[in-house]
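Problem 12. The chain below contains 196 residues. Write out its predicted structure in token notation.
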Amino acid sequence: MKVKNFIYLPFCLFIGTSVAGALPEIPEPFKYGVGGIENGKIYIGLGSLGNNWYMIDTNQSEKKWTKIAQWPTVPREQATATIIDGKIYVFGGIGKDKSGVITLQKDVYSYDIAKDKWEKLMTRPPVSLAGHVSFIHNGHAVSTGGVNENIFNGYFSDVELSKGNSALTEKVNRDYFSKPADDYFLNNHIISYDPS
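Solution.
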């Protein structure tokens, strides 16, 4: 399996200064998203872009951001992306469910660069993937870190239930954010996804 170059970040588009100075502004404000590079083409999406994804070809003399196929499901933040063999793989993240409550997303999608098409993959991570990191190793997407699903979803459920009661919202936030790090039970597993 041929591995392509990639950039992962819960995304702050880090590109060398010489390239960054030559690129036009991104069409929309961009934070908390994902991105990657393949063959000089930069792909960005999710986060504050919602369902929008963009690509810019740094090999072209006239560089411009082009909208590509929209993300097909719940917009999200804190996902990760890797590029392997011409496909962008997006893992997890957080987004609002149908009732409007922020929850962990447990799905995996791939974007076929050549076909400009998203596809939901028939797999699920064995641990929650939000606030995690992903990278490529030996043709596999490897992920580690991230939040505990029950604690994280519980916090956002409590925030939703406390709406309209500022004292209760303050208590929910204080209780959640004042815990010692060990009480969050963050993910300490390393998982691997083989796209083949």
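Discussion. DSSP finds three helices and 13 strands in the chain. Students who got a different answer should revisit the alignment rule from Section 12.3.
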